[in-house]
Amino acid sequence: MGNCCSDVGGRMAAVGGTAAITGNQSDAVDMYLKSRGIHGILSQIELSFSATNLRDRDVFSKSDPMLVVYIKERDGAVIEVFRTEVVLNSLNPTWIKKYTIAYHFEVVQTLLFHVFDVDTQFLNIEVKMLKLEEQQSLGEASCALSEIVTKPNRSLTLDLVRRVESVSSTHSQHHGKLTVHAEECFSSRTTAEMMLSCLDLESKDLFSKCDPFLVISKLVESGISIPVCKTEVLKNDHNPTWKPVFLNIQQVGSKDSPLVIECFNFNSNGKHDLIGKVQKSLADLEKIHSGREGENLFLPTLVGHDCENKILKSKLFVENFSETIQHTFLDYLAGGVELNFMVAIDFTASNGNPRLPDSLHYIDPSGRQNAYQKAIYEVGEVLQFYDTDKCFPAWGFGARPIDGPVSHCFNLNGSNNYCKVEGIRGIMMAYTSALFNVSLAGPTLFGHVINKAALIASQSLADEAQKYFVLLIITDGVVTDLQETKDALVKASDLPLSILIVGVGGADFKEMEVLTT
What we know:
Helix content is 17%, strand content 39%. The chain has helices at residues 25-35, 145-149, 249-252, 282-291, 329-334, 371-383, 423-435, 447-462, 482-492; strands at residues 4-8, 11-14, 20-22, 41-52, 65-72, 78-83, 99-104, 110-117, 136-144, 155-165, 170-185, 191-199, 212-219, 225-230, 245-248, 259-265, 273-280, 295-303, 306-322, 338-346, 391-397, 399-401, 410-411, 420-422, 438-440, 467-475, 497-504. The strands form six sheets. Strands 1, 2, 3, 20, 21, 23, 24, 26 and 27 form a nine-stranded mixed beta sheet that branches. A four-stranded antiparallel beta sheet has the order 7-4-11-10. It has a four-stranded antiparallel beta sheet with strand order 6-5-8-9. Helix 1 (25-35) packs across helix 6 and helix 8 (447-462) packs parallel to helix 9. It starts with a strand and ends in a 13-residue tail after the last strand. One of its GO terms (biological process) is defense response.
């Protein structure tokens, strides 16, 4: 089950823990994760980038795009964290450089992307030294990291927008699309070092030998290839031997994952000619090295309406080669597991008259959130990205509806039959409306809402749905039905359900420690 947290004097304390931590309600999500054996940073995520239909800002050639990535902090500050390489003469670039970011489940990590056309006069300058104000904007986009990793194939395509300001207004124009693909970096530290060479490459130039380089890509489940490594260009060489390349096993998935090794002839206009390619895994490449025999390159060729692989005399050689699966949270997401958020709010009289400023339920006309609204927003903001329909069951307890007895589990939206509301905004609106349609009463009983959540979770389990439920209970006081609550928790312990209790106000929540054991 979950942990109990107390917001006392601006501090969040894990009742079942040994130390207090400073922060806000999102810290409660972190405590929930730790209670499930998951600590803080869940994974390292590697982001790959490509774009299509970029705007052409050059007169005599195509744009030379570079992508810059920023992170937006909680206080609104924007920090640059990464730059790709510059791709020459391309309106549909696939960048080689990857950005690795620590993925935090408990935080909404907002990413900003800005594509620039690097001016020709700056192409020989290192990208980190480029002054962005001297480059032309091709468009920008933004998203949360959670939006990428929750996609079935972990790829998210965004419209690139260029903001145009005029005297009368500011409007946006669409200029192509940016695709961001996420791959989880596993803990393996195994790296394969290879020295690759080719023999008898076919010339693609009329008056000189070819200028070859290799691009190594991995094939992902969706069938697309993601470039992971590129060699240097060797001038005028039909029998090139490139400098060693290094591939971390986490970059390619495993030693048996298919790789595509493509040999190109470099052209300064950006239209590189494919000389030939092979498709082999790292394990296959190790065998090629051991056998000292090369692998013939092939070239896809259109024959009538069919595409056939033409075997070439050119060969790829591997001159040198040197070298427990733990399922993560993202593995479950990739497998189709969905988190479902539920919330229950304490409407007992100890919260104070909602119409008075000293009440924990007071709705400030200035828009300042009360403690309940903060807890709903900060926890819900994190979990909503993992809930596909974003329709959340929302209940209240400890209040007397108009002309009715005290209820310890009533639908926050006022409906007799339907408990769900749409989005975090829907919870907020239902909560505000309920304050004017019920009378605060008591006592503080958790058993009813826990049983209600357990019923939903058990029905989902019976339907074999891949869902996991998180119930957030927000309360200002110590639970009255302690034994009933313990019984409800034990009964629900085998269900796909965790319960997160956030305490607000100045009450002593130490008695709830028993619920965490």
